[in-house]
Design brief:
The chain is an alpha+beta fold. Helix content is 56%, strand content 16%. The protein contains 22 helices and 16 strands.
Length: 632
């Protein structure tokens, strides 16, 4: 009987109220200290391990949610600001809060002087640092401003990649900075400045932090540009004393862009999907919209026919940082810093003024936020599914616990499943696994890496038919041949380790036979599959090889199977076969023609003839059919 100390339900209550990892381990420690039995301690230890895993996953989700929420809040805050100084201070303050660094600062390019100068800082204590100017290509910031690419260093003073100068090194040393990350502030192809995050201790910036600061920099560049435009408008109004029609139109366009940005951001914040964003963009700009991922797969479409994304236009938009016109459609790359997440295509609006073009580009930024969020969720789910698949293929796993975990992920192990082991010499393993994971999500299955191979588990009652279709589908997805070894497994997780071993043997056999890009089960490999199978099914082999002849003989009372056996036994000679059968040679010819129509035109090929002779021998030894007669 479970005591309050050993009751696993305690851990569920702790998880529900957001307990720490230390609190989750206390029931197990209490059970051990209280003298609980080995079975109870073992069960509680397993539940504790799962609870800690769930706790870690939830913490990662919370962290990502906090970052995305902060990024969304930043977009809203920046859109609401009108004063350039307020915008710059808001940018550096929010960057410091998002990346949790000691210092953040922002430099703007001086086109006349040909350098970049420190404009605003947050957390800085050195006057020399706050007044620093960097020539193009000097130091980390000058290199970012010159190349328009992000750079990061764990210890700037000792990093030989940068052109060190006495002025820059002195100011950095006076501020006592070591780890520095800088990303460009870009408007189209033009770099207007650099956004930095720095720590006074050595550390490595992660790709996630680089992408996060780059996304903030993209929003910041638009906000800076908007603030600059507003300041220029105010100066023009002060000098002229009257608002011209052009200024009014520009102001209306800015407000429209801000309203559109708020509308698109609201869709993301309330949990909308890519289809809603595509529909909103089309409604705002009066055209049709298509959204594709980085591989060119259509994610959403509104008011437009299906069109593939033009790769050249996506590349031009990525390099230039602006939407580009190709034919009758506008194309804008969806970027997260330097990474291409996909593209947006706008049809039916060949003529876009600058304001609408900027609105279209802002829509691409909002789409990037949505795709980043979706990818984060998918990566977490794929990792959890991969870990479950690894446990399912482990012979020592707990079947009951695995079934429960599978149900939580929407996988019904009570149904028959097929286990597929994948290999491709043309595609790297991560790309093959990503294609398999996409297939698993569509089929409510699991995908992961097990024993250095990509493995896919999906519901299936016919693995032999599914294997070649899967090989073809994955081959198209990765752009190269994919070989698939398959095996079926009955309901429940118990048979999955055996099915994995059988599918792995089938994959090795296919590769040894030179059948790259094909998919099969051992049962479908003929007698070779029977020999390699763990539980040979001779009756099925005979039925698969001789089935049409056996069915014809049973239905017509003919002797095609016996005729074929005698024909092989007499060296495939029609004259000797007719003597052994005591029939006319024309009868032998007619029977062989009938056999050919039933078995197919290649039945006399060497490989097929060997399979037929082996099946005939097994058929005779196993007495599958009654003894034949020699009379017509």
């Amino acid at each position: 009987m479970l005591t309050p100390v050993t009751d696993p339900g305690v851990l569920l209550h702790l998880l529900a109220r957001g307990a720490t990892a230390e609190e989750l381990t206390r029931p197990l420690a209490a059970a051990r200290a209280g003298g609980a039995g080995p079975d109870e301690v073992g069960a509680l230890a397993e539940v504790t391990r799962v609870a800690l895993e769930v706790h870690r996953t939830l913490e990662q989700h919370r962290t990502r949610e906090v970052e995305l929420t902060a990024l969304f809040d930043t977009a809203g805050d920046l859109a609401a600001l009108r004063d350039l100084d307020s915008v710059l201070r808001a940018i550096t303050h929010r960057a410091k809060a998002l990346l949790h660094t000691d210092v953040t600062y922002l430099s703007l390019n001086d086109e006349a002087a040909g350098d970049t100068f420190m404009r605003v800082t947050d957390g800085s204590v050195s006057a020399a640092f706050q007044q620093l100017r960097l020539g193009m290509g000097e130091g980390l910031g000058g290199l970012v401003a010159q190349t328009a690419r992000p750079y990061a260093t764990g210890d700037y003073q000792r990093d030989p990649r940068f052109r060190h100068t006495r002025t820059i090194d002195g100011a950095v040393a006076e501020e006592d900075l070591h780890a520095i990350l800088g990303v460009p502030l870009r408007l189209g192809s033009k770099v207007i400045g650099v956004l930095f995050a720095a720590d006074r201790a050595t550390r490595a910036f992660t790709p996630r932090e680089v992408a996060l600061l780059s996304s903030l920099a993209d929003h910041a560049a638009i906000a800076i540009d908007g603030a600059r435009l507003l300041e220029e408008t105010r100066r023009a109004l002060a000098e002229l004393g009257v608002a011209s029609r052009a200024v009014q139109e520009s102001s209306d366009a800015l407000r429209r862009a801000e309203d559109a940005h708020d509308r698109l951001t609201a869709i993301v914040l309330r949990g909308g999907d890519v289809a809603e964003v595509a529909a909103a963009i089309g409604a705002l700009l009066g055209g049709g919209t298509l959204v594709h991922d980085a591989d060119g797969t259509e994610l959403a479409r509104a008011g437009a026919p299906p069109l593939p994304p033009p790769a050249e236009a996506v590349a031009a938009s990525r390099s230039g940082g602006r939407a580009v016109l190709r034919g009758d459609a506008w194309v804008c790359a969806v970027l997260a810093g330097p990474e291409v997440l996909g593209s947006i295509t706008l049809t039916g609006r060949r003529g876009l003024d600058d304001a609408d073009r900027r609105l279209f580009e802002r829509a691409a930024m909002v789409t990037a936020l949505l795709l980043l969020l979706r990818r984060s969720v998918a990566e977490t789910e794929d990792r959890i599914r991969g870990e479950l698949l690894g446990d399912l293929l482990s012979p020592a796993a707990d079947p009951a616990g695995l079934a429960v975990r599978a149900r939580r992920l929407g996988v019904d192990l009570a149904r028959p499943h097929a286990l597929f082991v994948l290999h491709s010499d043309a595609a790297p393993r991560p790309r093959l696994l990503a294609a398999a994971a996409h297939h698993a999500r569509e089929r409510r299955g699991l995908a992961g890496i097990h024993h250095d191979h990509a493995v896919l588990l999906t519901p299936s009652a016919s693995p032999g038919a599914d294997a070649p279709a899967l090989a073809a589908a994955l081959g198209r997805a990765v752009g190269g041949p994919v070989t698939v070894g398959a095996a079926g497994a009955g309901p429940g997780p118990a048979e999955l380790p055996r099915a994995h071993a059988e599918a792995l043997r089938c994959l090795s056999t296919l590769r040894a036979l030179g059948r790259a890009g094909d998919g099969s089960t051992l049962a479908d490999l003929g007698f070779l599959g029977v020999l390699l199978g763990e539980r040979p099914d001779l009756a099925r082999y005979v039925e698969t090889t001789l089935g049409p002849l056996l069915e014809y003989d049973a239905r017509r009372g003919s002797e095609l199977v016996h005729t074929l056996r005698v024909w092989f036994a007499t060296g495939m000679s029609q004259s000797r076969a007719k003597d052994a059968l005591h029939v006319h040679v024309n009868t032998v010819v007619q029977r062989l023609e009938r056999i050919g129509r039933l078995l197919g035109p290649d039945w006399q090929s060497p490989d097929r003839a060997l399979e037929l002779q082996l099946a005939l021998r097994v058929h005779r030894v196993a007495a599958v059919d009654p003894a034949p007669t020699l009379t017509e």
